[in-house]
Write a structure and sequence with these properties.
One of its GO terms (molecular function) is peptide transmembrane transporter activity. By secondary structure, this protein is of the alpha+beta class. It has two domains: 243 residues, 3-Layer(aba) Sandwich (D-Maltodextrin-Binding Protein, domain 2), CATH 3.40.190.10; 217 residues, Dipeptide-binding Protein, Domain 3 (Dipeptide-binding Protein, domain 3, Roll), CATH 3.10.105.10.
């Protein structure tokens, strides 16, 4: 989904791996300090799916705002280097099972209260207690006692049974030592654990959070990051402003950030060209033909690659999509190279692996279902008993997905003789609400932007039973067992090898379809003199100079 950004001191643990490619870019010139100090920018956004609670935000619309409002223990440098300490003073372990985490003293939440160790422990306990319904709750599965705080619905959301009440609402593996120190005991040694700690699920929450309903807090969030929340006008604008008491290295150089919530990427691009929008993360596909975006933007354009992959996911809870041969047939009928060439004009790379190859531990070329083989696809479809009725491919219409989703549907229609078409859902927020409610009636657009730089993040959230972003409700006990083994491996190398075995099983089941690896073409206004992109291509608002 997403990643945090910024960089300060080196992490106290050498186990964290580095991201392969940099997502950094900047404009010419040094900027003007006076213009920056009181200046403001307008950036492109979409309506967040949920109120802005870190452990309940799993999509990029709300995720990048959460990343700006909060600072965690660890951050991921813009240049793709190894994770580094942010709010953590130190993260120490001798066995990758028990971690002693000391936070920097004197940092504040936006309400003026000090950030203390208990704010992490309380936030993590809240997220790990399944009745609270945090979508990112399973990110705490490594911690001892998770099996006592988190229970699953035994027969799914539509079944008559309910998830049993957990026996406790506190993780036994969390302990506050003093105001700046807490201890984390994992169920098993987990080498990748410190790498995860920059993801927003692990952000601290102020004491006031626990006096409110989560949705009330999320509509007026109080974070501890370089900007603080001002207001939120649904489907129109989210206003943020500099937090002047922020005392870590990545302080804001400008004052205000307005996130304009668009329903049409072409309208946003028109605003960008007219200098009414100061940053657009991804220009629409209509601007790619003949490198039109380069002509339009000149030196205001930026091109980079990011550890992100576009997928099409299956609603496996729908009995029509429960046959793995059918799913593989659909995947083999997709001509990824044609989509890359004709829709994206070579700015995207056809996907051939389940985890983006820019991610540490990812194995290139391990998606056998990603080959274009329409003849085998037809055979598999016949063996699966064919497909009756219409196959509708859904996407959110407020971003530039219509062209490639139409192309996929047409390829399925041509290569498999299935009555297929693509249909847009007006907004990303509604689209995601339907996905999370398990109401999708056909394959749908999905994407994964890594939360932290390790292949584990491409397996556990997406493919284990009950994973936080396993939206299609895929389940394979063999994958679960192999992923558990990989998660508890004593070294990153052993972990990566074990995850590769889990992915081999995923590849046979085809719970989703990798389609392309992202390339990213961005643009900014003339008034921005300098900026950097973080390692997933989002604007680092703390770098902006005017």
């Amino acid at each position: 989904m997403r990643v945090s950004k910024r960089a300060t001191s080196a992490i106290a643990l050498s186990a964290a791996a580095a991201l392969v490619a940099s997502g950094c870019s900047s404009g010419d010139g040094d900027g003007d300090a006076a213009a920056s100090k009181d200046g403001s920018i307008v950036v492109h956004g979409v309506q967040p799916e949920n109120p802005l609670v870190p452990s309940n935000t799993t999509e990029t619309g709300g995720g990048k705002i959460v990343d700006w409002l909060f600072t965690g223990l660890v951050e991921y440098p813009n240049d793709g280097g190894a994770p580094r300490n942010a709010l953590a003073e130190s993260i120490n372990t001798t066995d990758s099972k028990v971690f002693t985490i000391k936070i920097k003293a004197g940092t504040k939440f936006h309400d003026g209260t000090e950030v203390k160790a208990k704010n992490f422990v309380d936030a993590w306990n809240w997220a790990a207690y399944s009745p609270n319904g945090a979508q990112n709750g399973t990110f705490f599965a490594d911690i001892a006692g998770f099996d006592q705080t988190y229970t699953s619905d035994p027969d799914g959301a539509d079944g008559p049974k309910k998830a049993p009440t957990p026996t406790t609402d506190k993780l036994s593996g969390l302990k506050v030592i003093d105001e700046q120190t807490f201890e984390v005991t994992l169920a098993a040694p987990t080498a990748v654990f410190p790498t995860k700690l920059g993801y927003s699920a692990f952000m601290p929450l102020p004491d006031v959070f626990f006096t409110q309903k989560p949705e009330e807090f999320g509509r007026k969030p109080i974070g501890n990051g370089p900007v603080k929340f001002v207001s939120w006008d649904d489907n129109a604008l989210i206003k943020l402003t500099r937090f002047d008491d922020y005392n870590l290295r990545d302080k804001m150089k400008i004052k205000d950030v307005d996130v304009k919530l668009y329903q049409d990427d072409n309208a946003a691009y028109a605003d960008l060209l007219a200098n009414n929008l100061d940053f657009m993360e991804v220009v629409p596909t209509s601007a790619l033909a003949g490198d039109k975006w380069k002509t339009d933007l000149g030196d205001r354009g930026r091109s980079t690659v990011t550890p992100s992959t576009a997928f099409i996911a299956f609603p496996i809870y729908d009995k029509r999509f429960q046959n793995a041969k059918l799913r593989r047939a659909v995947s083999l009928a997709v001509n990824r190279q044609e989509i890359s060439d004709k829709i994206f004009f070579g700015t995207r790379k056809p996907a051939d692996s389940w985890a983006n190859p820019l991610t540490p531990g990812a194995k290139p070329g391990n998606c056998t279902a990603c080959k274009f083989d329409p003849e085998t696809a037809k055979t598999l479809l016949a063996e699966a008993g064919g497909f009756s009725g219409e196959m509708v491919f859904y996407y959110n219409a407020d971003s530039a997905h219509k062209d490639w989703m139409d192309a996929v549907a047409q390829q399925i229609k041509t290569n498999l003789n299935i009555n297929a078409r693509a249909e847009g859902v007006p907004t990303f927020a509604v689209f995601r609400q339907n996905i999370n409610a398990h109401k999708m009636t056909g394959p749908y657009r999905a994407a994964w932007q890594q939360d932290y730089p390790d292949v584990e993040n491409w397996v556990n959230p997406l493919f284990i039973t009950g994973g936080s972003s396993n939206d299609g409700l895929y389940s394979n006990p063999e994958v679960d067992a192999l992923a558990k083994q990989a998660s508890g491996a004593p070294s990153l190398e052993a972990s990566h090898e074990a995850f590769a075995k889990a992915v081999e099983k995923v590849d046979q089941d085809v719970p989703s379809i990798p389609v392309y690896f992202y390339g990213q073409q961005s643009g900014h206004s003339e008034k921005i003199k300098k900026l950097e992109l973080n390692n997933v291509g989002e604007i680092d608002i703390t770098s902006v100079e005017l």
